[in-house]
């Protein structure tokens, strides 16, 4: 009964219920995924409204997109089907995410993007997100809010990602066992248990993945455990819990020059006259992440409700690198509270949202010499404290003539404290203590939307973004503390049109934006390959994003197909530096590196009522510059992927799903994730040539 109640409330749009979404309302099934556009509900900007009524550019991935369209259990290919979103995997397990070009700051990892599991912050106070600590097999839904969304989600100019877990069947228990195997020693297995009985919804999953890797020095082993529970302790009160644990080790083969990449793309970074090779130094990442969060929702009545969350996290990180061996521990704590007050019956029905978010991280970081994968003499001994606070308010008003106005404002404050302790070889020197308190910034957002009937809407918005340097940017990889690096500030202008036609079988979503970014943060490397960051004047970022789909078969009519859909996403960009001087060289008007001028993704999804299904995806990227000077460009990317499978109930309780998937079927030699402005021109990280994977899922429900 609990899940049915939650689903009815959320889909009705009467309340905003972040904590209730912890109860894991079922993710879209095969039928649900073909719902009309005006029935699709999104959570962005705390509205829980139909996508048609949401005045923002939002990309949505369902469980089919995440776990069925591609065979290999990685989040990367699914994210790359969304216009304006680009995910890289420079080595297995090393994810990099760009929303509208934000990867210029990310040599590795995820920065300048805020992420949440419902209302629980996953991005820490230092602006870093351990995306590789999540397993895609434990995800049921992802929402990507593109562009700055600081009026509600705090500091960030790239965008916001909202995660949800697997769906829990109402009133039933479901157990799913899975196993897969593929090229280059790929192997994985998993078990997921969900139960939705006795006014509770609980989901527990464990997933294992390992691979020898396509390149030398590129093996990976990952184990993930997730626990999600929601408990209705009274008609007005819901308590939820999220627990995550990830144990990840992956080797880092390192970047190659173009000559090395052409000669042998499977090689790891070789030794030079002054530096050893990646293999000799056993370069890699050892990362253990633990996360525990609690959510409490209280509904005073049908007009007022509050959701408050708290969390704690810990990270144990080690990185043997070419030049050093880094050991780091992070402890994070934080919380978020959000209250909604609705006035639905006035002359102008309005919903007010007010809240605050406070995050704090404490990091102990030590650098050692690296002697063949073993830490040697201590080089640096440092501590870093990061604090980030946000206070926000938003009003959403229904106006006459089918208009809807949204106005929001937030105050953002980011502070760092840094201490460097002397190492033994330096003698009894005093510790060095520095602080960096960035001036608090107010971030407004205004959006106006109008609906035209039940199948068409248009919106326009003006939003501001602010992104302080992350903890990995104020502290260069060689150690120290950068007191001169300033935050990014930006203003985004955006218009969009979305709708459907032909009984909702044809759907479209088109967005045009212009983003003016000041004090843009970019990466630099010294001769040894250690990275640091500088401000690079400003950038003008213009883009067009479009997503189209057409269903040949109506799901509500008798046919041998339950789904036959062709879809296409397109991203056109023109990102340019302005007022950018590098030494004596003027780089103004150069293209921003790492952003393809044209990205096209086309797919075909087919499912039959007999249980046979197929998904085909083709991706094309134009060449793009790899340096600020635009002197080196990437190769064009042409990537064909396909999955075929058979899913069939076995009696009343069992379901069997068998599939086979092929990746890079055109057998292209390409780089999935270039190193931008790479020292020594080592730009290339080769992705696997043609490869395959097969797997099976067996579930029982009672």
Q: Short description, anyone?
A:
With 702 residues, this protein is mainly β. The chain has 6 helices and 38 strands.
Characteristic key phrases:
mainly beta
Quaternary class: single chain
Helical run tally: 6
Shape: globular
Mean pLDDT: 88
Poorly predicted sequence stretches spanning 5 or more consecutive residues: 1-32
Rg from Cα? 25 Å
* Helix-residue proportion: under 10%
The CA-CA distance between the termini, in Å, is 16 Å
Main beta sheet: 22 strands, antiparallel, barrel
How many beta-strand elements? 38
β-strand amount? over 45%
Please identify the structural class as seen in this structure.
mainly beta
Subcellular location: Cell outer membrane
Signal peptide: 1-23
Keywords: Cell outer membrane, Membrane, Receptor, Signal, TonB box, Transmembrane, Transmembrane beta strand, Transport
Pfam families: Plug, TonB_dep_Rec_b-barrel
Would you kindly provide a written description of the structure presented here, covering whatever features stand out?
By secondary structure, this protein is mainly beta. Helices cover 5% and strands 55% of the residues. The strands form seven sheets. It has a 22-stranded antiparallel β-barrel. A five-stranded mixed β-sheet has the order 3-10-11-7-8. Strands 1-2 form a two-stranded antiparallel sheet. The longest helix is centred in the N-terminal third of the chain and has 11 residues, at 2-12. The radius of gyration is 25 Å and the shape is globular. The model is unreliable at 1-32 (pLDDT under 50).
């Amino acid at each position: 009964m609990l899940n049915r109640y939650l689903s009815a409330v959320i889909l009705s749009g009467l309340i905003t219920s972040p904590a209730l979404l912890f109860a894991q309302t079922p993710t879209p099934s095969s039928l649900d995924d073909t719902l009309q556009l005006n029935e699709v509900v999104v959570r962005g900007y705390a509205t829980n409204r139909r996508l048609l009524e949401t005045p923002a550019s939002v990309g949505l991935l369902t469980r089919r997109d995440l776990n069925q369209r591609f065979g290999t259990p990685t989040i990367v290919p699914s994210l790359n089907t969304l216009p304006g979103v680009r995910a890289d995997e420079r080595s297995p397990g090393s994810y990099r995410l760009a929303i509208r070009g934000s990867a210029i700051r990310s040599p590795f990892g995820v920065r300048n993007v805020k992420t949440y599991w419902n209302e629980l912050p996953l991005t820490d106070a230092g602006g870093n997100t351990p995306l590789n600590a999540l397993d895609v097999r434990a995800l049921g839904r992802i929402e990507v809010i593109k562009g700055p969304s600081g009026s509600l989600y705090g500091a960030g100019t790239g965008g916001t990602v909202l995660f949800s877990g697997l769906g829990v069947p109402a009133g039933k228990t479901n157990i799913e066992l899975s196993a897969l195997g593929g090229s280059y020693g790929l192997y994985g297995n998993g078990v997921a248990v969900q139960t939705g009985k006795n006014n509770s919804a609980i989901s527990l999953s464990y997933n294992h993945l390992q691979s020898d890797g396509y390149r030398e020095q590129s093996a990976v082993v990952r184990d993930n455990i997730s626990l999600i529970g929601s408990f209705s302790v009274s008609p007005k009160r819901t308590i939820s819990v999220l627990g995550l644990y990830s144990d990840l080790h992956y080797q880092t083969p390192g970047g190659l020059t173009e000559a090395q990449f052409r000669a042998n793309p499977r090689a790891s970074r070789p030794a030079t006259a002054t530096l050893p090779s990646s293999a000799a130094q056993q370069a890699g990442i050892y990362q253990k992440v633990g996360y525990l969060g609690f959510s409490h929702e209280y509904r005073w009545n049908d007009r007022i409700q509050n959701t408050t969350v708290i969390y704690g996290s810990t990270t144990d990180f080690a990185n043997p690198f070419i030049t050093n061996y880094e050991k780091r521990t992070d402890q994070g704590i934080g919380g978020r509270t959000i209250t909604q007050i609705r006035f639905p019956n006035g002359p102008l029905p309005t919903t007010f949202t007010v809240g605050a978010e406070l995050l704090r991280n404490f990091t102990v970081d030590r650098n050692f010499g690296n002697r063949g994968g073993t830490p040697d003499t201590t080089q640096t001994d440092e501590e870093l404290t990061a604090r980030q606070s946000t206070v926000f308010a938003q009003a959403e008003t229904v106006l006459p003539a089918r208009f809807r106005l949204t106005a929001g404002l937030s105050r953002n404050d980011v502070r760092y404290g840094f201490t460097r302790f002397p190492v033994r070889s330096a003698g009894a020197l005093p510790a060095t203590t520095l602080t960096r308190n960035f001036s608090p910034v107010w971030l407004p957002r205004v959006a106006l939307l109008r609906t035209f009937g039940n199948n068409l809407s248009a919106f326009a918005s003006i939003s501001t973004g602010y992104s302080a340097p992350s903890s990995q940017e104020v502290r260069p990889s060689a150690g120290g503390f950068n007191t001169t690096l300033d935050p990014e500030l930006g203003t985004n202008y955006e218009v969009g049109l979305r709708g459907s036609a032909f009984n909702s079988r044809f759907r479209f979503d088109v967005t045009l934006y212009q983003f003016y970014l000041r004090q843009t943060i970019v990466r630099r490397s010294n001769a040894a390959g250690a990275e640091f960051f500088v401000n690079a004047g400003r950038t003008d970022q213009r883009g067009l994003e479009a997503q189209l789909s057409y269903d040949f078969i109506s799901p509500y009519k008798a046919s041998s197909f339950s789904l036959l859909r062709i879809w296409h996403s397109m991203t056109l960009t023109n990102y340019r530096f302005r007022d950018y001087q590098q030494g004596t060289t003027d780089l103004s008007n150069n293209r921003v590196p790492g952003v393809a001028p044209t990205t096209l993704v086309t797919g075909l999804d087919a499912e039959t009522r007999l249980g046979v299904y197929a998904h085909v995806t083709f991706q094309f990227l134009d060449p793009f510059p790899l340096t600020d000077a635009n002197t080196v460009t990437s190769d064009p990317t042409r990537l064909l992927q396909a999955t075929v499978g058979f899913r069939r109930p076995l009696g009343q309780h069992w379901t069997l799903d068998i599939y086979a998937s092929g990746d890079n079927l055109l057998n292209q030699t390409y780089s999935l994730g270039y190193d931008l402005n790479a020292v020594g021109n080592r730009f290339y990280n080769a992705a696997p040539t043609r490869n395959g994977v097969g797997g099976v899922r067996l579930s029982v429900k009672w």
